[in-house]
Design goal:
Blueprint lengths: L1 H11 L13 H21 L1 H8 L4 E14 L2 E10 L6 E5 L8 E6 L6 E3 L1 H8 L1 H10 L2 H9 L5 H27 L1
Antiparallel strand pairs: 1-2, 1-4, 2-3, 4-5
């Protein structure tokens, strides 16, 4: 029993510290920064259509009535609804947000394809901004990492402070978007 305990304690002891200047090469650094940018900027670019839809710039305004929600297991749902355009006309069967409940009635925008309706107005826009805020939060410490890779010492403390602020802003935006989605 003592040998197992020694193995556990040995695993928790800090290992040797890496020597200074032991960084990946410039090509690997550029690849890492490029991947970081891709992961953080892609959600921002992909959310543009959803933001325009929720803001009413595209799509058809109307009212969404959630007709049914079927449990798919593991906390996932498939919800169907009926969209009634403001300008009149026959209700359109659509997919509703999986965070809906049967019987919910809300202002919505019908996608140009006519297959899905999303929450409209301020709550819809804030909900659509959830992923872009996640991307912004992820970008917070990228300037510090670039400065570290380049060996720039002056200003790194400021980059950490800005990194914390940008990450906090991103976190607040994600939380606000999640609250808007589920309310």
């Amino acid at each position: 029993m003592s040998d197992s305990f020694d193995d556990i304690i040995g695993a928790l002891q800090p290992g040797p510290k890496p020597s200074p200047g032991n960084l990946p090469g410039r090509a690997v650094q550029a690849l890492l920064v490029g991947c970081w940018l891709l992961v953080c900027l892609l959600p921002i670019l992909l959310a543009v259509d959803g933001i325009e839809l929720a803001a009413g710039k595209t799509g058809t305004p109307g009212t969404l009535t959630v007709v049914s929600c079927e449990a798919l297991g593991q906390g996932r749902y498939d919800c169907k609804g009926s969209f009634t355009p403001d300008g009149g006309g026959a209700p359109v069967p659509v997919d509703a947000s999986p965070d809906s409940e049967a019987g919910d009635v809300t202002r919505a925008q019908l996608t140009p394809e006519g297959d899905r309706a999303v929450k409209a107005g301020t709550a819809g826009v804030v909900a659509a901004l959830t992923l872009p805020f996640l991307g912004v939060g992820g970008l917070g410490f990228l300037p510090y990492v670039i400065m570290y890779f380049l060996g720039v010492r002056r200003g790194r403390r400021g980059a950490v402070v800005v990194g914390f602020a940008v990450t906090a802003l991103g976190t607040a935006g994600v939380v606000a978007g999640m609250v808007a989605s589920y309310s």
